[in-house]
Design brief:
The chain is mainly β and 124 residues long. Helices cover 0% and strands 50% of the residues. The strands form two sheets. Strands 2, 4, 5, 6, 9, 10 and 11 form a seven-stranded mixed sheet that branches. The radius of gyration is 13 Å and the shape is globular. The mean pLDDT is 96.
């Protein structure tokens, strides 16, 4: 069974940076896609970035140019580098696994496994 564990969240001031990590285990499929999502209180869960096994990435318009998704296959770890953080980036961040292709338009309910999340708080 796929297990995902996020880490790296915290509190930063506006303009700061954080790097989130997602430790992945139990993946046996040779074709899959990973995504980062976020959810702020009172808001729906929204896609932030995705990456597939070919390294193809997609991003939400709100984070393009500021966030970078990457994956270290040797360490079985997914990353989200977040720069130039804004207060509106404050949310719980989740990594998710889908056992086929995905993009930023893939709905959250189409992902197969989720981590428990890590909180990111950006103060102005």
């Amino acid at each position: 069974q796929v297990q995902l564990v996020e880490s790296g969240g915290g509190s930063v001031q506006s303009g700061g940076s954080l790097r989130l990590s997602c430790a992945m285990s139990g993946i046996t499929s040779s074709w899959y896609c990973m995504g980062w999502f976020r959810q702020a209180p009172g808001n729906e869960r929204e896609g932030v970035a995705t990456i597939d096994i070919f390294g193809t990435t997609t991003y939400a318009d709100s984070v393009k140019g500021r966030f970078t998704i990457s994956q270290d296959n040797a360490k079985n770890t997914l990353y989200l580098q977040m720069n130039s953080l804004k207060p509106e980036d404050t949310a719980m961040y989740y990594c998710a696994y889908r056992s086929t292709w995905c993009s930023i338009s893939t709905a959250s309910h189409d992902y197969n496994y989720w981590g428990r999340g890590t909180q990111v708080t950006v103060s102005s």
